[in-house]
Amino acid sequence: MESVKVALRVRPLVKSEIDSGCRSCIERLPNEPQVSIGKNNLSYTFNYVFDENEGQGKVYNLAVKNLIENLFKGYNLTILAYGQTGSGKTYTMGTNYNGEGELGVIPRAVYDIFDIIESRKEDTTFGVTVSFLELYNESLYDLLTDKPREQSIVDMREMNNGICIPGLTELQVQNADNALAILKEGSSGRVVGATAMNAASSRSHAVFTINIKIMNKTNPKDVIASKFHLVDLAGSERSKKTGATGDRFKEGININKGLMVLGNVISQLCDGQHSFINYRDSKLTRLLQDSLGGNSVTLMIACVSPADYNQEESVSTLRYADRAKKIKNKPVVNQDPASAEISRLRKENEELRLKLISV
Ligand code: ADP
Ligand code: MG
């Protein structure tokens, strides 16, 4: 059983924090992936800690790169960015990809995936599709459809022990540039709500998914399929601090619902006492059901601001991430349903043949 891995990323103080006289209240401890926060020096340990001096390349190379190979072995992979608005989730994930600046996790992962595909083309056939969803006020929006936004709502259904989303646009991609052009196009359709907390705050969860089908050329019936979810979660702050009112307040409550249920699910998974996990209580947790406590290798990247002004929210993120670390997942290889059935029949056939021989 694999635990959910957790990386903490502390971003640098941003200009507005420096201008308003904020000081850093988070200190990285030497030798261990550990930080202490505030005057009481509460300390937390994670699988990785990245401080303000560590850039996009280092975060990717240490925490993410070695997970990519799992996809080619047929495991699902999920990376979640968690943290308050303005803590660096979108920057870290690279969800707002526009081809400029230091690349985030999604574009780097896309390049690595296609490098691996290129290196194995001789004996393997690959099929790659991508989809891009936004979960906003408990509605799922397809970010890759040509339809106007109000007609782009899709919904989930339970199928074969998994979630399926009928009508969701899944685009075939041939190379990394294809996939990144789609990411760029899709992210420009995300809602952006201005709140007192951050002028361009994301009040929604964005889920970019890469589906990979892998067929062995010498044995074409040997097919595995894997799913890579890259999730830029909504801001984890409590709505009262955003200064949000009216419509924005409603958003705040619903966003908290998804993250609150996610928090409950994490608690239930951690204490091991629950035979029933409340995945169904929010769309976010239904969507991520396979990724938490299920069939996935999972990394949570917890993002925090180092500013003393944000200490309370940062402590809450550290606590949340600390609990997530204790979840155990049970990843198993995904065979394509058709090829799984064929394998089963072959095995049965072989058993019957052996029986005949032994008679
Ligand atoms: P979130 O998505 O969590 O709301 P953003 O990713 O939009 O936060 O980050 C907020 C601001 O901080 C952006 O201007 C972003 O460029 C900057 N930022 C975040 N993390 C880093 C980092 N590690 N290094 C430099 N700038 C960062
Ligand atoms: Mg964001």
Describe the structure.
Belongs to the TRAFAC class myosin-kinesin ATPase superfamily. Kinesin family. It comes from Apolygus lucorum (Small green plant bug). This is Kinesin motor domain-containing protein. It is found in: Cytoplasm, Cytoskeleton. With 359 residues, this protein is α+β, with helices and mostly antiparallel strands. The chain is 34% helix and 25% strand. The protein is built from nine helices and 17 strands. The strands form four sheets. Strands 2, 6, 7, 8, 9, 10, 13, 14, 15 and 16 form a ten-stranded mixed beta sheet that branches. Strand 11 and strand 12 form a beta hairpin. The protein is globular. It starts with a strand and ends with a helix.
